[in-house]
C-alpha cells in the first residue's frame, strides 16, 4: 500500500527539533534586525525630530498646586502645567523659574521636577520658591525652554542672575 506522506526530508519526524530551532532563529532575526524596516517611523522618532527651542524661549505656565510639605522634612513647593509645545524643551533640574510683572523679571524659584508629555505637548514643572517671594495658585510664571549655557545662573543669589528678556 502506498503512503500518502510526502518523501521530502524536512517533513520527517526526526527533523522536527531542527525545524523548530530554524524557525525560532528566523523569527528572532526578523524581530530584532528587521523591526525598524517593517515598523517605519515611530511617534517617538517624530518627537525626537522636533527642533530644539531657541535660547531664551519662555514657556509660560500657571501655578496649579502649592504645598507646604508633602513628606516629613520636605520644603514648600509649587507646581504648574501648560501645553502647546511645538519645540523640543531643554529644561533641567536647577533651572530658574521666572515671574515678569510691570516689565520687571525676577527669579522666583528653582526647578525640582520637570515632566514633558510628548503626546499632548505639555510640560509640568515643580519648583522650590526663593525666599521672600509670594507665589499663589493662579500666578503666571515661566521657564526658559533652552537656557543659554554661556549664561549660567549666578551663585551670588537668586535675583543677581540676568534672566532672558521675556516678550
Number of domains: 2
- Share of β-strand residues: 25-35%
Spatial strand sequence of the major β-sheet: 1-2-5-4-3-6
Order of helices and strands: HHHEEEEEE
In one word, what is the shape?
A: elongated
CATH-assigned homologous superfamily of the largest domain? Probable tRNA pseudouridine synthase domain
Straight-line N-to-C gap:
93 Å
What top-tier CATH class of the largest domain fits best? Mainly Beta
Helix content: 10-25%
Find the CATH topology of the largest domain: Thrombin, subunit H
Average the pLDDT over all residues and give the rounded result. 79
Number of helices: 3
Using only C-alpha atoms, the radius of gyration works out to 28 Å
Enumerate the spans where pLDDT stays under 50 for 5 or more consecutive residues: 154-161
The total strand number stands at 6
**Biggest sheet, open or closed, and with what strands and sense?**
6 strands, antiparallel, barrel
Instruction: Report the structural category.
Output: alpha+beta
Known CATH architecture of the largest domain: Beta Barrel
Describe this structure in words.
This protein is an alpha+beta fold and 167 residues long. It folds into two domains: 10-40; 58-144, Probable tRNA pseudouridine synthase domain (Thrombin, subunit H), CATH 2.40.10.230. Helix content is 17%, strand content 29%. It contains three helices and six strands, in the order αααββββββ. It has helices spanning 16-33, 35-39, 43-48; strands spanning 58-67, 77-82, 96-101, 104-117, 122-129, 140-144. The radius of gyration is 28 Å and the shape is elongated.
Amino acid at each position: 500500500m502506498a503512503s500518502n506522506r510526502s518523501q521530502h526530508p524536512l517533513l520527517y519526524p526526526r527533523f522536527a527539533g531542527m525545524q523548530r530551532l530554524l524557525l525560532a532563529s528566523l523569527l528572532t532575526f526578523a524581530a530584532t534586525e528587521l523591526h525598524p524596516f517593517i515598523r517605519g517611523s515611530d511617534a517617538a522618532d517624530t518627537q525626537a525630530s522636533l527642533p530644539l527651542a531657541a535660547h531664551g524661549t519662555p514657556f509660560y505656565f500657571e501655578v496649579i498646586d502649592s504645598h507646604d510639605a508633602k513628606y516629613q522634612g520636605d520644603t514648600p513647593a509649587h507646581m504648574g502645567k501648560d501645553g502647546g509645545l511645538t519645540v523640543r524643551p531643554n529644561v533641567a533640574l536647577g533651572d530658574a523659574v521666572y515671574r515678569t510683572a510691570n516689565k520687571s523679571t525676577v527669579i522666583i524659584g528653582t526647578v525640582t521636577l520637570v515632566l514633558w508629555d510628548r503626546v499632548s505637548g505639555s510640560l509640568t514643572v515643580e519648583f522650590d520658591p526663593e525666599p521672600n517671594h509670594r507665589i499663589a495658585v493662579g500666578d503666571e510664571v515661566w521657564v526658559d525652554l533652552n537656557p543659554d549655557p554661556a549664561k549660567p545662573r549666578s551663585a551670588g543669589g537668586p535675583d543677581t542672575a540676568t534672566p532672558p528678556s521675556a516678550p
